[in-house]
Amino acid sequence: MDKRLSTSINDPALRAEVRDLYDDYAASLDDLDFPAWVGFFGEGCLYRVVSLENFNQGLPLSTIECHGLGSLRDRIAAIRETAVFEPRTLRRMVSGTRINGVGVEIRAQANFAVFESLSDREPHLFITGRYLDRLTRENGRLKLHERICVYDNYRVRTSLIYPI
Amino acid sequence: MNTATTPDTAPCASASETPVSTWKMRRWPASRETSIPAWIYSDSSLFNREMEVFHDGPSWNFVGLECEIEVVGAFKRSWIGPRSVIMVRGEDEAVHVLENRCAHRGSQLCWENRGVVKDFTCPYHHWNYDLQGDLLGLPFLRGAMGKGGMPRDFRKLDHGLRKLRVTTLGGIVWASFSDEAPSLDDYLGEEIHALVLRATGGGRRKLRLLGYNRQLLPCNWKLYLENSRDPYHATLLHSFFLTFGLLRTDTAFKAVPTVGGRHGIMASTYSAATAGQQNEVTSQLANLKTDFTLEDMEVVKPVDEMGDSSMINFSVLPSVFFQQHGNSLALRHLIPKSASLSELSWTHYGFVDDDEAMNRRRLKQANLMGPAGYVAVDDSEVLARMQPVAESSPESVQIVTMGGVDHDSQDTMLTETLIRGFYSYYREKMGL
Questions:
Q1: Among A50, B96, B284, B347, which residue has the least CB neighbours within 10 Å?
Q2: CATH 2.102.10.10 domain range(s) in chain B
Q3: In chain B, which segments carry CATH 3.90.380.10?
Q4: Strand order in the sheet with B172-176
Q5: What is the DSSP letter of A6?
Q6: ∠B345-B50-B339 over CA atoms, to 5°?
Q7: What sign does the dihedral B191-B195-B198-B201 (CA atoms) show?
Q8: Is the dihedral of CA B198, B204, B206, B210 positive or negative?
Q9: CATH code linked to domain B190-430
Q10: What is the domain class of A12-151 according to CATH?
């Protein structure tokens, strides 16, 4: 397969490649395979989880903000080493993948819905929103150069432990 | 049919088993100063009384920041207890706080969180109010074709929105439903007044809104209020704090209840010297991870912007906690929704004259706070698990004897003096 950047947002092979990336990304987090999760990002990446309220108003505050791979690893280390939280299982559903632009980087988006199952209660819809991404190709593989997870929830249900 | 999964079909309890107002029958347990009964976290009649006494009563509630509504007609929706209010910049350029409830039928008037309007129109029957809350007009005041319409003695000026008392301090907007509330200065007391100014630039700097974080806490509002007046837990639960020397028992600390326990101050010093060091105190802390470091240390390296090497956090009854963690400044608005549910809204701010590095630091250090905060998740998780325990055993009793039995100022983190002070004040106001 040609690994040069495609020039069309409708290129079926590119759309399939991005969809696969999103599915694999979600599976890595569902499985708590954090090294694999970090592996989806490129050097110098930006990862933010931000409310629709802040995003729409152009307010800079994030709920999670990571600059670079080291900062992603810090987030994981803190979850593993210092955070105290109730055991839970999260399932991320990703759909509606779209390519918005193709140039030196690829701009793409998708919807997410995350279901949360806490230790002694039924699953519920925990958070829902959009991934807004900028992807670049490194050594033939697409990497997230920027991922902004804009969540629609007015409020987070108690705590956001694992990344989205 | 599996009857075990259909509780709705269970026979109703007879009315006589459910007193209309149970809180008046409650008795605070013996050892009053150091005991907290679990029923205060679940009794809905008590919750209603608390809202009357504190949030609707002679107190001052946090509403928002002046910089959120800079132009005439700019508004922000906020909350005083479970009641929705609108903070708006009036034609007179003053800040007004109005109850978000149409004077006609009580429907919610404003459905947006923020915006700019010329006036407010109720969606139900189109009653229209100006920015100060006065009724401008209503459709069919005189009826139509000689029929209907309001009585001839209907006076618009008698039917405005409920207007709250409003005052500002340090760019922060406060409101009260009560005519009995003392001045804000007297309500806060000298120490808190000075700290509000310290946290907001001493009246010399203009605040800049950085954004919001909001979370649902499935717990009674007092569990969060106690948590924000509890330095003892911070040395144990929050190992992230400890690990990076941001808050430790080996730093100088003051716990100061003020105005008879109404408010509470927690002041600690930090220095680059204690960060990352271990000694005999830290060796007792099971949660301290001595081999854990961060790749991006700026998250835990504050700059001493106030010039006093201090982190001062304080809780102002009934609704707000001033946060200074490193360079992350925020107002945590505690919004009770019911006896078992609360909302915590974080308004993060900086100053318009912050340089780029300080702005970056504030946003980065915000990672410690909020619903995904390195430190704050510990609290929301613990409190969410406390509520069902309190509800399942309302007659059980908690003890708060760390650091003694009274509520004087103490210079240690190993104290529950602020919690004792709050409940001394609470019992007096509630008559419990």
A1: B284
A2: 63-167
A3: 190-430
A4: B61-65, B172-176, B165-169
A5: P
A6: 60
A7: negative
A8: negative
A9: 3.90.380.10
A10: alpha beta
Residues, chain B: 432
Q: Which residues pair with B322 in a beta bridge?
A: B314, B331
pLDDT at A2: 46
The predicted-structure confidence for A15-51, as pLDDT tens digits, reads as follows 999 999 999 999 999 999 999 999 999 999 999 999 9
DSSP letter at A9 equals T
- Using the Cβ of A74 and the Cβ atoms of chain B, whether some distance falls under 8 Å is answered with yes
Per residue, the 3-state secondary structure of chain B, as one string, reads CCHHHCHHHCCCCCHHHCCCCCHHHCCCCCCHHHEEEHHHHCCHHHHHHHHHHHHCCCCCEEEEEHHHCCCCCEEEEEEECCEEEEEEECCCCCEEEEECCCCCCCCCCCCCCEEECCCEECCCCCCEECCCCCEEECCCCCCECCECCCCCCCCHHHCCCCECEEEEECCEEEEECCCCCCCHHHHHHHHHHHHHHHHCCCCCCCEEEEEEEEEEECCCHHHHHHHCCCHHHHCCCCHHHHHCCCCCCCCCEEEEEEHHHCEEEEEEECCCCCCCCCCCCHHHCCCCCCCCCCCCHHHHCCCCCCCCCEEEEEEECCCEEEEEECCEEEEEEEEEEECCEEEEEEEEEEECCCCHHHHHHHHHHHHHCCCCCCCHHHHHHHHHHHHHHHHHCCCCEEECCCCCCCCCCECCCCCCHHHHHHHHHHHHHHCC
Residues of chain B with pLDDT below 50 are: 1-15
∠ CA(A153), CA(A154), CA(A158), 5° rounding? Answer: 75
Strand bridging mode B35-37 / B397-399 = antiparallel
Side chain identity at residue B38, one-letter code: A
Tell me, rounded to whole angstroms, the distance of Cα B68 from its chain centroid: 18
What is the Cα–Cα distance from B128 to B372, expressed in whole angstroms?
Answer: 41
Contacts of A13 (CB under 8 A, 6+ apart): A1, A6
Using alpha carbons, select from B348, B375, B288, B390 the residue that is nearest to residue B38: B390
Number of C-beta neighbours around residue B185 at 10 A: 13
A63, A82, A84 member nearest B213 (Cβ): A63
Give residue B299's pLDDT.
87
Nearest to A163 by CA among A85, A84, A92, A87: A92
By the 8 A CB rule, do B195 and B322 touch? Answer: yes
Mutant choice from A45, A52, A55, A74 vs B, greatest count of B C-beta within 10 A: A74
Q: Give A-chain residues touching B213 at CB under 8 angstroms.
A: 51, 61, 63, 156
What is the reported pTM?
Answer: 0.92
Residue B373 to chain A, least CA–CA distance (Å): 8
Q: What is the mean pLDDT of chain A?
A: 94
Q: Can you say whether the dihedral through the CA atoms of B108, B112, B113, B114 is positive or negative?
A: negative
**Domain ranges for chain A:** 12-151
Fold of B63-167: Rieske Iron-sulfur Protein (2.102.10)
Please report the ipTM that was assigned to this predicted complex. 0.95
Chunked in runs of 10, what are the mean pLDDT values of chain A (164 residues)?
63 95 98 98 97 98 97 94 94 97 96 96 96 96 98 98 98
Kindly report the nearest CA distance between residue A44 and chain B, in angstroms: 13
Counting one residue from chain A and one from chain B, the pairs whose CB atoms sit within 8 A come to: 121
